[in-house]
Design brief:
24% helix, 12 strands, two-stranded antiparallel sheet, 222 residues
Length: 222
């Protein structure tokens, strides 16, 4: 398992975002050399956990629980075959493009060591949005991405440091449950009956998903 690229985005004006400024950082490109990764602070500050990366939509991106977004090269390759077009590392807005790692199948709370020091923890899957669809210019993209359910994973930073393309990735902790990033995604989108099962992931789960699961259980008990 290894890191193929660390991808950074800068704010660029586009016609397809609903951001008041009309800009997005979704079009990420591989960085040259080492990049520092650290917890960025609370959501809404506009900060990414990856130095040099820009978060424009602070309502839905950035913050400690979505500090880094990872996507598997194998899933990009699958989409290449389905869409009939080339998809470069970073084109799904991911900070990390990986090889040999089942990113969507990673357990919530699973921890990865990248290189010699950085440790990241899986918190949730990624929900597609209008900006993602506009960026790829694929008709019905949100629906297609949702149906496939290979969401990639958001991660929080447990141990900061520097990473770069070619670094090894090691799974250093697997929690004792079966809640994956892909399951979390299905539960909060199309299969809400799965929400109670998310509670097995405990505090490692993204706070928004955890709150949704608790509300669902409370409503069912009434």
């Amino acid at each position: 398992m290894k890191l193929l690229s660390v991808n950074l985005g800068s704010a660029r004006p586009v016609p397809y975002t609903d951001q008041p400024q009309g800009v997005t950082g979704i079009d990420k490109r591989p960085a040259d050399g080492p990049v520092r990764v650290a917890a960025p602070g609370p959501k809404g500050t506009g900060a990414s956990g990856v130095a040099g990366d820009t978060v424009c939509d602070t309502r839905h991106h950035g913050g400690d629980d979505q500090a880094v977004y990872a996507f598997a090269r194998e899933d990009l390759d699958d989409w290449e075959r389905e869409l009939g077009r080339k998809l470069a590392n970073g084109c799904f807005g991911e900070n990390l493009t990986t090889a040999g790692l089942d990113v969507s199948g990673a357990l919530i709370g699973e921890r990865w060591r990248i290189g010699s020091g950085v440790v990241l923890e899986v918190t949730s899957g990624r929900i597609p949005c209008r900006t993602f669809q506009g960026h790829l210019a694929e008709r019905g993209w949100v629906r297609r991405f949702t149906r496939k359910g290979a969401t990639g994973a958001y991660l929080r930073v447990i141990e900061p440091g520097e990473i770069q393309a070619g670094d090894s990735i090691e799974i250093v902790h697997r929690p004792d449950h079966t809640v994956t990033a892909a399951m979390e995604f299905r539960a909060v989108t199309t299969e809400r009956e799965l929400l109670p099962g998310l509670l097995a992931a405990g505090a490692a789960l993204h706070p928004k998903a955890l709150a949704a699961a608790r509300r669902y259980v409370a409503d069912q008990a009434r």
